[in-house]
Amino acid sequence: MQYGNQSRQDLWDVYGTVRCKCEVEGVLPNVTVTLILPPNGSPLQDILVHPCVTSMDSSILTASSVDDCDGSAFSGPYKFPFSPPLESFTLCSYTSQVPVPPILGSYQLKEEENHLRVSVTLKLHESVKNSFEFCEAHLPFFNRDQIGVADVKVNSGQLDISKEKNLLVWSLGQRFPKSREVTMDGKISFNGPTPGPTDPLCTDLTAYIKLCFKVPDMTLSGCCVDQHSVQVYSSAKPRIVTSRELQSEEYFIWNSTGTAPVSSGDMML
């Protein structure tokens, strides 16, 4: 949740999951997977494990995001011994205290005569890999007539306008430009023949951008599976394949010239 307003503190939560699929021969095989962090990575917190995990260090399970960050939190390595089920399963989930969101955004929407002036800047943080599977910014407009004319320009990517849905979809493709910054600017009039979609929350200048993206081979926490320390107690030699991805779920940038909910719990989305 980014507000673009000095009187409102931006809020973000980072959630991670580790999913496994084990195809191991033998009766009740035992597997141990170890998660590691980079040297300055934030400790994992609020860890929940699958019932198949047979034992865990108590200091791992008691680390909570509500605890005081006094530097004494357990920072790994995190070992998970388990007897795997046959199907794919979530080995564990966790939270992480990441100091900055991956994409910083500014959104300004202003009334000007018979149209809205829209201005957007998105900047990819330097710590995030500039290689996306997809990246889109959705700009919906509620409680207005249907879009009539949209004279909007972007300096990168492709802009699609759905007049029926009163929606702008900005496809940024698989890379930000070398500057890591993209902009949108223009004006939109709402004089179409039919009313657009309604929403009880987004009235007047209360509006948002929703970002949807996926970055392969990366996590914000830096957490990854240590392939060399995976232990499989079975007669067959295992083939170990790991992958990582960073993906948005609820990622909103609010119009800084309008009102916005206090927290994500007030959004009713």
UniProtKB/TrEMBL annotation:
Protein species of origin: Channa striata (Snakehead murrel)
Protein name: AP-5 complex subunit mu-1
GO biological process: endosomal transport; protein transport
Domain MHD: 1-254
Domain of life: Eukaryota
Matches recorded under PROSITE patterns: MHD (PS51072)
Subunit structure: Probably part of the adaptor protein complex 5 (AP-5) a tetramer composed of AP5B1, AP5M1, AP5S1 and AP5Z1.
Family per record: Belongs to the adaptor complexes medium subunit family.
Keywords from the UniProt entry: Membrane, Protein transport, Transport
Membrane topology: Peripheral membrane protein
Predominant place of localization: membrane
Record keyword Lyase present: no
Stored Pfam families: Adap_comp_sub
InterPro entries listed in its UniProt record: AP2_Mu_C_sf, AP5M1, MHD
Subcellular location: Late endosome membrane; Lysosome membrane
UniProt GO cellular component terms: AP-type membrane coat adaptor complex; cytosol; late endosome membrane; lysosomal membrane
